Amino acid sequence: xxxxxxxxxxxxxxxxxxxxxxxxxxxxxxxxxxxxxxxxxxxxxxxxxxxxxxxxxxxxxxxxxxxxxxxxxxxxxxxxxxxxxxxxxxxxxxxxxxxxxxxxxxxxxxxxxxxxxxxxxxxxxxxxxxxxxxxxxxxxxxxxxxxxxxxxxxxxxxxxxxxxxxxxxx
Length: 170
Description:
It is a single chain. By secondary structure, this protein is mainly alpha-helical. It folds into two domains: 64 residues, no CATH class; 70 residues, no CATH class. Helices cover 45% and strands 5% of the residues. It is built from six helices and three strands; from the N terminus they run αβββααααα. It has a three-stranded antiparallel β-sheet, with no helix packed on it. Helix 4 packs antiparallel against helix 5 and helix 5 crosses helix 6. The termini are far apart.
């Protein structure tokens, strides 16, 4: 779930079904047709998303082991509404190891991806399209605010590999 949230900037990955993806196509995609809360909020939310090759490969492996119509089924086999307690513990432990004190959910990763994209492109329209926001105002309110809040915090995290310093927010 976390990998999908990071690669796609989807905040609600629960409720996705295997018939939403085209993993074996020349260009693997995922079409957002529903979430556990019902249909997408707007046309922008319902977009077809190109899948990164690494995510498509992971999803193929996951699908080969799956016995459910849902990508992330709950214990009873139906559509999952949220992360399981076990998944949440794994995510919180990983966040703690990384020095992240904020409450972490897949939706937090959505904000992180948008903030990172804005910090590296300074192209609000590209971020809007990637995040599937209907209004540019939403993109700017979330991602610019988040970037300002996390700018100093990012450089205090323990490195897990090579990293570069974020540039200052204008």
